[in-house]
Amino acid sequence: MWNISPAFRAAIQSPVHSTTVKAEVLDTDFNVVVGGTFYDTGQSSGLVIPGIAEDSPEWNSSLMGNRRAGNIQNYIVDGQVDADSSRLARRTMNISVMNPEAEFTPNSDWGGLFYVNRLIRIWRGVVFVDGTTEFVPVGTFMLDTTDVVAERNMSVVVLTGTDLYKLLTKAKFGTPKRWEAGTPIQTVVKEMAQLAGVTRFILDPLSHRSSNTRNIQAAINFERKAVIGDEIAKLATAWGLDIYFDPMGRMVSEESRLDRPTVWQYRPGEDTSLLTVKASYKDELLYNHILVTGTADENNPVYAEALDTNPSSPTYWQRIGVRTYEYESTFIATQEQAQNTANSLLSEHTKVVEDIELQAICNPAYECNDVITVQESEFTKLDHRLRIQSFSVPLSSSRQSIRLRRTVTV
User: Fold this and answer.
1) Model pTM?
2) Which domain holds residue 295?
């Protein structure tokens, strides 16, 4: 989770608090361009102005008053950021911006530059009672589509975007590439990403691993025209890495099975920000037996197996039978790496999947795979540490959707 102040934390736990959103247009060096910062029309969780309910006649009158006063140029009027750990490009966004002078229309001078070589970084913040503001970044994006809507002498531009994993999915190797045995896997990942134009990184040194699971044990070859993003995703699975772009647009590659601390708690009587809870239980993705084949050396493949042999586990093989998941990779060269992959996959799949959906007052500081605690003892009987799989950050309201999964084997 992004580091937030105690005052920010207290504010978003309150049922009524003022919020704001801003977007920054960045150049390719991640600097804000001149005139490239614009804000929303002002909003709050439940209120726009203290004492006036949202969507009431007074609320609408106040909003229209702001518009009549001319305070609408470059204002964000709607939008949402979505983050989902199941996607290669974890973050996507859509945002609607007032366009009264056609400055965001693609064929305008400024707008043309905007769409060709600019990035957009979106922030959501809290406005404190003393008028100061604290912002949290919720994503840095490359633009995908642009819709220009004109009606009654007014215009809105609707933008959609994807985080910088888009650089990796658009790029292919122009010539065959090879990394020799002994190269750290993080070096391979970084150099592949650099070929696609990525410049900013946060790389876990994997110092807790042995050299055999930190460095490649056989040369890795990639063919011409192979998609760099797809090959990096395969490496991430084979090597137990979580690879994504953070809200500031930096490429992160870290251990996927990190034991993370709890960053937030939803508890009765302590937090008024939790609105609804839905719990679902599924076994469609349940496996308790993993078979891994490593074919880095086609003439000498390596094999590994992992099985749930814990008699107290609900997924113990003698209790529910054997459910086998097979995985094969040309990136696995050693027995140790194959076994590490099998154990990692068993950890991911030996679960009766418990999906939890929350509706809550927005906390924009979350990151996918953050761990939170949810207590709701009356109906769902929840009292667990749960890992965030996906979440939304609304830009024109304060109701946030969060999807979670259990973090422990059941």
Assistant:
1) 0.79
2) 289-314+322-344
